[in-house]
Amino acid sequence: MGFTKIAFGHHLDDIVETILLNQFFRGEIGAMRPKQELFGGKITLIRPLAYEREEMMVLLAEKLGIATLGQSKCADDETSNRMVIKKLLKEIEKKNPNVVKNIFRSLNNIKVDYLLESHEATP
Questions:
Q1: Residue 115: which of 29, 30, 24, 56 has the closest Cα?
Q2: pTM reported for the whole predicted model
Q3: Domains of the chain
């Protein structure tokens, strides 16, 4: 059909959780970009909700009467690593309500001079 864009429903909390999942379980720093071109620009992934908190999406879904549509069983699995991270962030938010936004903003506030050189990395 010639489509060149794929829209995902990932929100700010998904992106922050992914940052921590990658650090904790993959040993890398990375996230999901709000807009990402693949295959030399043939396909573009967009995440139009990337700057919105999950709680706002839940409230909107409830208001629209679609609260149960599109729920992923994987993300709600109590034993998933994502759920562990989600609970950890909720706990930290009790002491610092800005923790999720701060982690998200950190993607634009990288102190390159304080990162390891590739030869300094440990196994």
A1: 29
A2: 0.84
A3: 5-109 (3.40.50.620)
